[in-house]
Structures are given as C-alpha cells and as structure tokens.
Amino acid sequence: xxxxxxxxxxxxxxxxxxxxxxxxxxxxxxxxxxxxxxxxxxxxxxxxxxxxxxxxxxxxxxxxxxxxxxxxxxxxxxxxxxxxxxxxxxxxxxxxxxxxxxxxxxxxxxxxxxxxxxxxxxxxxxxxxxxxxxxxxxxxxxxxxxxxxxxxxxxxxxxxxxxxxxxxxxxxxxxxxxxxxxxxxxxxxxxxxxxxxxxxxxxxxxxxxxxxxxxxxxxxxxxxxxxxxxxxxxxxxxxxxxxxxxxxxxxxxxxxxxxxxxxxxxxxxxxxxxxxxxxxxxxxxxxxxxxxxxxxxxxxxxxxxxxxxxxxxxxxxxxxxxxxxxxxxx
Length: 330
Ligand code: BTN
Description:
3 domains, SH3 type barrels, binds biotin, about 30% helix, five-stranded antiparallel beta sheet, BirA Bifunctional Protein, domain 2, about 25% strand, 14 strands, DNA-binding, 9 helices, Arc Repressor Mutant, subunit A, alpha+beta
C-alpha cells in the first residue's frame, strides 16, 4: 500500500539522520502542516519520532505493538488485507469475520487480534490465543467456486503456512492431514474454515489461522505440551509477528491467485510435498476395520488417499489415523 504515510516512513527510514519538514513536504507533495499531522499519527501508532528545530524529523524506534496501520505499511499485496481490521482483544476473529461478511465487506478483508478470549479450533475445541504471542487472524474470501471446492482453500492455506516457515528458517514444516502445521511432529498452527453457501455457489468463506509464534514452552497449556509447540520454541528465536503476518498474506495472495488461474494441481503438489507421513505406512481405524495403509496423497475434494498392502486404494474423509512415533491422533 503506497499511502502517503508509508512513503513518509520509507523516506525517514532511508535517511540515517534528520529529514527536514520542507524536504518531506516537497518529496510527498503535501503541506508542512500535513507532514506534522502525519507525524502525530505515527506517534499514536507507537513510532518514537524526534523533532529538532532547523534539522527536522528522525525515527528513533518503530512500534513493537501491531496496529492496522503498521501492518498495512509493509504489506506487499494487491487485494489481501487492503481492508485490515486489528483489535487488541476479541472473543474470536471468526465471529467478527462472519459479521463483516454479512455487512458486505469485500473479498480479502482481514481481521487480526492480539488476543482472543474464546478462540475456536476445529471440532468445537478451544484455541488458546494469549496476548501478543501468536497470529490470530481470519480472512474473508468470496471465491467464485462451488461449495465442494471449499476444502481446497483450507489445503491451500496450509501450504502457505508451510512455505512461510520454509522461507524464513531451515526447519522442515509438515502438514498433517488435513491442515495442521507441524514442526518436528508438533503442531504450531491450525486452520478453521467456515463457509456460507447457497445453491451451487460459495457466498463467503471465513478462513481462520491460528499460529503459535512467540510462546515459550511453559506458556503452552500443559495438557497439550506434548503435541503443541511454537515457532520460537522450534527455531530458538523470537519472531517479529507483524512481519510474519505480512509474509503470510503475501504468500497467500500469490498462491490464491495462481490457484484461481490454474486450478488445484499446484496446491495438491505442494501439499503433498509437505504432507506428513505421505509415502509412509500408518494404521487407520474406521468404523468398519483397522488396517495398515500407505498414505499416497490428497484428492481434489480434500480426501486423503491411502493404499492397503494388496494395492487397494481408499479415499478417507474421516478416520482415526495412528500417526506413529512422535505423532498424535487426528
Ligand atoms: C485448529 O483446530 O487447528 C484450528 C484453529 C484455528 C484458530 C484460529 S485463531 C484465529 C481464528 N479465530 C478463531 O476463533 N479460530 C481461528
């Protein structure tokens, strides 16, 4: 987003010293009073700015708290997050996403909160969302797709999260079917997709992403500590949450645009590249039987394809999978 304020920050950050009000007003083609007003807004967003008479302005430090504005300044997207709403605290960004959808907000609207009081996980589980420790965000999408293709959007989102981790670390993220992001067998992120559809058309999707970023081990609830982790625990370093959100949104937009143009094939390939235990043998229990199977990949409808020892293949929609050593049950 090339707003005046973003250009202002770019100019100040490029200069190591002071930039005069006149210089800023000339470069941005705005009045000196407008420059001064922008400076006050920046301070409200947490920038520390020094103003010295006859010298000009200098940024001393950038905010560590995130805000809608600061998130948008470094955002390199065309449509995703161009409407971005940030809250300090909400019950669940999913709920807000649904409200915004019914108010007619556009495709690509993003809701982010520092903390959630009632974060929702899949299968009516709670999602622990402590303040400032992770990414709690919902994306409103209005895809021109039939409802049966909605699971593809969840699989796509999972590949985006895996690509983000791979881009920023030398860790080996994996996706456990259908859409848990694992690092070293532990879950660091989950996706909750909720859809409103009519007839043969998706009206909208609220795609919720929960990512544990800067929790230390003792900040992960004890009952899930054996199977959950955070980017910080796995990488051994603190993450910049704002930049991480921006990277996810950039990668999401690129991946989504290619998917709309070219279809599901590339997403399927990427998902299978990251797929946890793909090509390996696991034990599967369904209502009818328990069997050994090799996981082969995913199907366009989001099912997991598995092959038994006699070569018979089966599509799984819901099954208990015994993921084996280090893993945990679906
Ligand atoms: C899962 O169970 O793996 C999915 C977790 C999804 C959590 C995210 S956090 C942002 C959004 N708001 C919610 O209440 N849930 C999703």
